[in-house]
Amino acid sequence: MTRSTLPWLHVLLAIAVVAVWGTNFVVIRIGLDHLPPLTFAALRFTFALLPAVFFLKKPDVPWRNLAAYGVLIGAGQFGLLYIAMSGFISPGLASLVVQTQVFFTIGLAMWLAKERIRSFQLVALGLAAVGLVVIVAHTDASVTPLGLALVLIAAASWAGGNAFSKAAGKVNMLAYVVWASLFSVPPLLILALVFEGPQAIIQGVRAADTATWAAVLWQSVGNTLFGYAAWGWLLSRHPAAVITPMAM
Model-level pTM greater than 0.85? Predict the structure, then answer.
């Protein structure tokens, strides 16, 4: 078995992650019906952090690695994605555009980790890029230039987070995601207080119904604790060019 060949159990794990992430954008839309976007993101990572941080030992990685991952995934990816989806881009289109993270991630892996990409992978990525461009070019008013820019920056932030999780090596990825959330919550909370205001935060929390809290918990447990822990586990064991295209 070559390093670029995935064992079937790893393939099934990747499919499970993608299946969970496939629900992501509908769930985000439900949460945004009542919660301001940055407040929603702050709550998501708060529940990813607590109470799990009291039961999982900090992984043996530098604090700066955890901090970078937490800020990039928390504020960078999801803070910006939630803002974009709060009226600047449709959930369906956001789910496609954010997958440009594949190209960003592979580029970073080639640059930082000196990974090599095979010719057939390059051709496949080229076809995927053409497909994304065609879809975006034929969208309607459900997307704005600001929404598109925010999701592209979110995708680049996701790629940066992938690079840091890959650099962490073969650690306990569940603990890694939990402890990194320690650095996701503060910037999101500060940004929510500055740009949304205490009154909007309080009103959003008060207006949240059962569906809203279910959306927050699914984002925390399914998407973050399972999805990103499993994704980081796969990235630590296989080249980025093998794993990341599966998200598409």
Answer: yes
